[in-house]
Amino acid sequence: MNPQAMLAFARGPFFNVAITFFIAGMLYRIANVIFLGWSKDLSKPRGSKGLGVVKSFLRGGLILPFFPREKKAFVNNPITYLAGGLFHLSLFIVVILGAAHMLAWKSLLGFGWWTLPLPIVDFMAAVGIIAMVMLLINRLNHPVLKRLSGAAEFFNWFLVFVPMVTGYMMTHHMFLPYENLFALHMVSINILLIWIPLSRISHFVFYFFSRTIHGVEWGKRGTMP
Amino acid sequence: MTDKTMDVFIKKTGGWAASQLEACTRCGICAEACPYYLSTGNPDYTPIWKVELLSRAYQQRYTLVGKVKTALGFNKAISDEDVRDWSLIDFNACSMCGKCAAVCPMGIEINKLIGTVRAGVTAAGYTPKGLMDKAKAQDEFGSPNGDGPEAYADWFASAEKEVGIKVPVDVKGADVLVVFTSLEITGKKSNLYSLAQVLEAGGVSWTTSLEARDAFNMGTIVGNGKLQKKLLGRIYDAAKNLGVKKILVTECGHGFVALRDNMPNIFGEALPFEVTHIAEFLPKLIDDGKIKVDASKYDDGKTYTFHDSCKIQRAGGIMDEPRTALKLLVGDNSFKELASNREEGLCCGGGGGLRAIPEAFDNRMAAFKLKLDEVEEVDADVVVSTCNNCQLQLKEGLGFYNVEDVEVKGLIEMVADALVLN
C-alpha cells in the first residue's frame, strides 16, 4: 500500500472503526461501573457535600498538578507532579486548541472554535514530548513506580507517545515525507483509540467519578478535599 | 480460604469502589503521603499497592478485559499466599490514616479500599494474631482487654472517692450518653474524673451505661462486619432505650467515626440522636459560657502543639474547635502548629490497630519518628491530642527515642485542670 492509500484508509474506514470502538467501549466501561450499584449514605453531614465536590475539582484540576497541597510529597517526587501536569496541559493545548486538531474536530462535530497560534502549540507539543520521556525515565527508576508498573503501563506509555512524536515530526517535516508521517500519525491514533477502553488510559472518565466521590466524602465531614 | 476473601470483595464492590479502582493511574504519589513508606522506603507500603488484591479481584470478576485474560490463562487467581502477604502490608504497615486520599490526584479514597482488603484478609483468617485476640476478647466480654460491666461499674463508682462526683449510670431521660474507649479504663482512669468534673460544672444532663460503655470497635479495625454491627448495636440500643439526645464519645477515634458515620448505614436509618466527640463538645461548653476556664493555669512558658488524629480530625472534621479551645487555654503565643497539620496531619504511627500487633512495632516506631521530627522542629514542650490511642503511641515513641522533655496531654485533662468552679 502506498502512503496516499494508507493515509486515505487510516483517515477513512480505519478511523471510523476506531472511533466507534472507542465510544462504544467507553460507554460500556461507564455502564459497567454504574450498574454495579450505589448505596445511599444515611449519615448526617457536618459540612456541604456540594461545596466539597466543587473544591475537589478546583484542587484536582488546577492546583494539584503544579501546586501540590503537600509540600513534602512534591519534594520527594517532583517529576510525577511537574511532568505529569505539563503532559496533561500539553495534551489539552495541542489536541483542543491546536488549529490542525480543531479542524479535525470540526469535521467530526460540525463546529470549530478559537485556536492558539502555532508557535505556542508547537512549543507545548515539545514540552509534552519531553514530559513523557521524563515520566518514562521516572517510571523505570522510582522504587514505588517500579513496584506499581507492569507491561500494561509501558505499553500505555508507548501508544500515547507515538502519536505525539509523529504529530510533531509532521509539523516540522522531519525525517520522512509528510504523507508517510501523516499516515503513521493517523494509524497510531486509531490504535490508541481502540486501546483506550481496554486500558487505564480510560482514567480520564473515571477521574470525574473519583473526584466527585472524594469531594462528597471530604465535604460531608467539613474538610478540604 | 481465598473463596471467603473473594466473597467479601464481591459483596463490597459496588460502583463506589469500582469507579475508584478504575481511576488509578499508577502514578505513585500516594506513597509520598504514607508514614510507613516514607519512614521505611519499602515500596510494598505504597497505599494503592495495599489495594492491589482488591483491584485484581475486581478486574478478574467484573471487567471484560479481565475475563478475557482469565480465559486465556493470563490472570493469576488470588492465592492463600497472596492473602497472607497482603495481611502483612495492610495490617502491619497501615493505620488507615487517609492521608493518601488527600494527595491522590484522582482523589481515590484509598484508606477505605484498604478497609475492604482488611475485611477480605480477616474473612480468610489471616488477621494478625494480636489483633484477632483483642477482637475475640471484645466479642466475648465487651472490651478488647476483657473488662466487663463489673469493672466499669467499679470505675464509675470510684469517681465519688476521687472527685466527689456520683457518676450517673443508665439514667433514663438524660441528654447525653457518654461512651468511653477501653484504653481509658486500662490506662487513663483519670479521664472519667476529669470529664465528670467538666460535665457537672457545665450543668450537662448526662449518663453512662453499663451496656453501652465502650466505643472501641474491634469489628471496624479488623473488618469483621458482624462484630462491628454487634458492638455498635449495644450502643445503639442503649442510646434508644435511655432516650438520649446525644452520644458523647471520649478519647476514641475510630469508634467515633463508626458511631457517627457507619452506624446509620449499618442499621439502615438516620440516627434518632446526635453523635459528638469531646474534641467539639468541650470547646462548645467553653464557647457557650457553660464552663469557665482559667487560662493562667498554662502560663508556664511552655510551647504547646496540637496533634491531629486521623479519625477525629481528618475523618471527623473536628479541626477548628480543639484548636480554639487550646489557644484559649495556653494563649496564641504559646501555641505552634506542626508542619503537617489539619487535613495533612501526619499519623502518630499507632492507629488502625497497630498497637495491638507486636510484629508491627518497628513500623510503628519508624513512622512515629516523622512525627517526632515535626514536634522537635517547632520546639514543642507539650503535644496535645484528643485521641487516647495517639497519646499512648506518642508517649511510647518518646520513650523509645529517649526524648524526656516533651509531654503528652489530652484535651479533657487540660480543660478539667483549668476549670473555674463557682
Please tell me about this protein's structure:
The complex is a heterodimer of chains A (225) and B (422). Chain A contains eleven helices and no strands. Chain A is an all-alpha fold and 225 residues long. In chain A, α3 packs across α11 and α9 packs antiparallel against α10. Chain A is globular. Chain A starts with a helix and ends in a 5-residue tail after the last helix. The mean pLDDT of chain A is 91. Chain B folds into three domains: 125 residues, Fumarate Reductase Iron-sulfur Protein, Chain B, domain 2; 154 residues, no CATH class; 126 residues, Rossmann fold. Helices cover 53% and strands 6% of the residues of chain B. Chain B is mostly helical and 422 residues long. Chain B contains 21 helices and seven strands. The termini of chain B are far apart. A four-stranded parallel β-sheet of chain B has the order 2-1-3-4. A three-stranded parallel β-sheet of chain B has the order 5-6-7, with helices on both faces. The model of chain B has no long low-confidence stretch (mean pLDDT 94). The chains are: A mainly alpha (225), B mainly alpha (422). At the A-B interface, α2, α4, α5, α8 and α11 of A face α2, α7 and α15 of B.
Produce the secondary structure layout.
The complex is a heterodimer of chains A (225) and B (422).
Chain A: H1 3-11, H2 13-34, H3 49-63, H4 71-76, H5 78-97, H6 99-109, H7 118-141, H8 143-148, H9 151-171, H10 178-195, H11 203-220
Chain B: H1 2-12, H2 15-23, H3 35-40, H4 52-62, H5 64-71, H6 80-92, H7 99-103, H8 110-123, H9 129-141, H10 149-163, E1 176-179, H11 182-187, H12 190-201, E2 206-207, H13 218-222, H14 225-242, E3 246-249, H15 254-267, E4 274-277, H16 278-287, E5 304-306, H17 310-314, H18 320-330, H19 361-377, E6 382-385, H20 388-400, E7 407-410, H21 411-417
Parallel strand pairs in B: 1-2, 1-3, 3-4, 5-6, 6-7
Helix pairs in contact in B: 1-8, 4-5, 6-8, 10-12, 12-21, 14-15, 16-18, 19-20
